[in-house]
Structure formats: structure tokens, C-alpha cells
Specification:
Serine Threonine Protein Phosphatase 5, Tetratricopeptide repeat, 18 helices, disordered N terminus, 0% strand
């Protein structure tokens, strides 16, 4: 990946001047990880569209395959889950025909992420398993680590914390074996979240702070925003709401700068919770409403569920039990459909508070 200090303006100019599909794709391929890590994918979206169209006119399907694969990743991060999956399926078909196992794994990863975002957890798990089988058979270490991390996140959502921890720990060993520092940071963060759930706040904070250093070093701004959310939650649970709010505000700003609607929705869910705790219910409702708009627009069912739970709690506190019931029942239906044990428990707890 090009160093983050290099002049991206020159790279963009070169891409825009590239008058041949292969040249454009080579430049996009070389710079994609930089733009992805820096949250600047919007700057290359039109170029990705152009690369796909150029690939359709090539005799060899390899260029089209790679262009579709890159665009699927950009579309997923932009919250365009259906188009992302369409691109990933098309690229997967080409990769399977070409015997490109690394690309197969990358496409299956996007398909799993898109399915999970839309609440199709069983489908997402199946796609992860399919990708893992390919990665393990072909000894593709990074791909194994990434797919294990995805499977772990889904297992954790279902309340299978022990299985999730095993996946994260295996993925962490794999990431360290190839020096994948950005991925290592993400995995440390997720292990920190599990430690916090177990009440080991010291271990959780140590893991998260180490992950922040790795994310900074790798220029992984999306990972950094997610880490700030986790650190904010840790501060809130540890009795420091002021620090928690500051972390959430910073994470939201990073999400806005990245143009990442899913991350914005997640940040707003957390920010609404801490603002409500200091008694500013109207401000909290306004934040949650913005988050709900993001989550509904992109169809991210997990973030939508969290925000609906928060909305229901705020509506209850505001003396609007009928609205609270509607929000919480919608959240409960979503949680059941996703087999999301933690959200389902939170829904039931909030609904119990509405009982006379």
C-alpha cells in the first residue's frame, strides 16, 4: 500500500488521465487500499465505474473481475449493500472460472458482510464458512484471518462469546504471522470488547489502546473510529460519561469525514445513549433520529435495531409509551430475525419497563 504521506492528488490526476482500461485499473489497484484506509473512496467512485465499463470491453475477463471486486468493497463501505453484493457475485463468478482463490475469498467476504448488514445472519455465516474452506485449503493466511474475524463478530452477536473468542484469537495469531498490523488492531479491539463484557475492564482497555496505536500507524481511519466507539463505551461503563461523550463525538466526526453512513449510525446510537444519561433527552432523541435515518436509508438492520432500542427507551422516559412500544416491538422483530441474543435481551428489558 502506498504510504499515507504520498500526494493523492497526483494519483487521482494520473487515474483521470489514464485513457486505457488496464492502465486505470493498475493505478486503482495500487492506490485502493490507501483510499480505503483514509476514508477517501468517494474520490475514486466514478473511476471505479469507468474501470468496470472498460473491463466489460476486454477480451480477458481478469480486468473486469478485479474492477468489480474493488467496486464491491467501495459500495459496501458506502452503505450500498445490494449493489455491493451484485458486484461481488459477478466478480466471484469470474474468479471461480479463473481459479483465482484469493479473489474468491475477497468476494465471499463482501457478500457475507452485505448479508449481515441486511440481517441475513444465517446466509452470512454460510458465506463465511464457504470462504474459510477455500482460504484454508489454499493456505491464504490473511483471508483466513479476515473471514474468521467476520464469523467471530456474528457469533458474538448471537451470544456465543467463547466461540467468538476462539475465532478472534486464531485470527490474531494469523494476522501477526504475516505482519498485518491494521488487521491485528481490529482483532485486539474485538477481543477487548469481549473482555469488557466479562467485566475485565483493565484487559479491555489495554487491548483497545494497543489497537489504537496500530490503527494510527496503519492509517486505518475506519478502524480508529470503531476503536473510539469501543473506548467510549468502556469509559461510560466505567463511570466517566464526559470522556465517553468526547470519544463518541470524535468517532462520529471521523465517520462523517469518511462518508460512512453505517459508522455514523453506530456513533449516533452510542452518542444518544450518553447524552440521555446526562438528562438532555431532547438532544438525545434528535441524535437517535438522525442515526435511524442513516440506518433505514442503507438498510443496516443491526444498527437499526440498536437505534430503535435507544429510541424506545427515550420515548418511555419522555412519557410516550405507545411510541416506545412500537419502536421496541420493531426492534424485537429485527433481533429475532437476526438471532441477535444481546439485542433481544435489551428489547425485552425495555419492554418490561413499560409494563404497568
Amino acid at each position: 500500500m502506498p504510504a499515507l504521506g504520498l500526494d493523492e492528488a497526483n494519483a487521482l490526476t494520473a487515474m483521470r488521465l489514464a485513457d486505457e482500461g488496464g492502465a486505470l485499473l493498475r493505478l486503482l489497484d495500487a492506490w485502493f487500499e490507501y483510499f480505503e484506509a483514509a476514508g477517501r473512496l468517494a474520490a475514486v467512485r466514478a473511476l471505479l465505474d469507468r474501470a468496470v465499463e472498460a473491463g466489460r470491453g476486454q477480451a480477458s475477463p481478469g480486468e473486469l473481475q478485479r474492477a468489480l471486486e474493488l467496486r464491491s468493497r467501495a459500495r459496501y463501505l458506502g452503505g450500498e449493500y445490494v449493489p455491493a453484493a451484485d458486484d461481488a457475485r459477478a466478480a466471484l463468478d469470474l474468479a471461480e472460472r479463473a481459479g483465482d482463490r484469493r479473489s474468491e475469498c475477497a468476494c465471499l467476504k463482501v457478500l457475507a458482510l452485505a448479508a449481515r448488514a441486511q440481517g441475513a445472519v444465517a446466509e452470512a455465516l454460510g458465506l463465511c464458512e464457504r470462504g474459510l474452506a477455500v482460504a484454508e485449503r489454499e493456505s491464504l493466511v490473511r483471508e483466513q484471518a479476515e473471514l474468521l474475524a467476520n464469523r467471530a463478530a456474528m457469533r458474538a452477536a448471537r451470544g456465543e462469546d467463547d466461540a467468538a473468542r476462539r475465532d478472534y484469537e486464531t485470527a490474531l495469531r494469523l494476522a501477526r504471522s504475516i505482519g498485518a498490523r491494521g488487521l491485528e488492531g481490529t482483532l485486539l479491539a474485538n477481543l477487548g470488547v469481549l473482555a469488557a463484557r466479562e467485566g475485565d475492564l483493565g484487559r479491555a482497555q489495554a487491548g483497545l489502546l494497543e489497537a489504537v496505536e496500530l490503527a494510527h500507524a496503519a492509517g486505518e481511519r475506519r478502524t480508529l473510529a470503531a476503536l473510539l466507539l469501543n473506548l467510549g463505551a468502556l469509559a461510560f461503563d466505567g463511570g466517566d460519561p464526559v470522556q465517553a461523550e468526547a470519544r463518541f463525538v470524535e468517532a462520529r466526526q471521523l465517520a462523517i469525514e469518511r462518508g460512512d453512513p453505517a459508522l455514523q449510525a453506530q456513533a449516533l446510537a452510542n452518542l444518544g445513549r450518553v447524552v440521555a444519561a446526562r438528562g438532555a433527552l431532547d438532544e438525545a432523541e434528535a441524535l437517535v433520529a438522525v442515526g435511524l435515518a442513516h440506518a433505514r436509508r442503507i438498510g443496516h438492520r443491526e444498527h437499526l435495531t440498536q437505534l430503535l432500542i435507544n429510541a424506545g427507551a427515550l420515548q418511555r422516559l419522555g412519557g410516550r409509551p405507545a411510541e416506545a412500544h412500537r419502536s421496541l416491538e420493531e426492534a424485537r422483530d429485527l433481533a429475532r430475525a437476526m438471532d441477535h441474543a444481546r439485542f433481544l435481551a435489551a428489547c425485552e428489558a425495555e419492554l418490561d419497563k413499560l409494563e404497568p
